[in-house]
Amino acid sequence: MQLEVLRMYKQCLRAAEKKPGFRDNVKHEFRKNAAIPKTEVLRLEHLMRQGWRKLQMMQDPFVDGMGRFQK
């Protein structure tokens, strides 16, 4: 699971290079969820599925912005 997360992180950073402002968003999302314990498998799997969908969105040539909710 950990290697899969790292692989997704690298792919997200590569996809974010082509679009302004995406890199900070990617780093923020991964850092925000870095403290999740490895024992919470269901939560990690959910975040992985969400991450793959966001990666596909970033790779779409017609997407030029990404929002982020702040608390």
From TrEMBL:
GO terms of biological process kind: mitochondrial respiratory chain complex II assembly
The keyword Ion transport is assigned to this record: no
Keywords tagged on the record: Chaperone, Mitochondrion
Segments forming domain Complex 1 LYR protein: 4-57
GO cellular component: mitochondrial matrix
Subcellular location: Mitochondrion matrix
Keyword rRNA-binding: no
Short name of any one Pfam family annotated for the protein: Complex1_LYR
Similarity comment: Belongs to the complex I LYR family. SDHAF1 subfamily.
Identification of the protein by name: Complex 1 LYR protein domain-containing protein
Lineage: Eukaryota, Metazoa, Ecdysozoa, Arthropoda, Crustacea
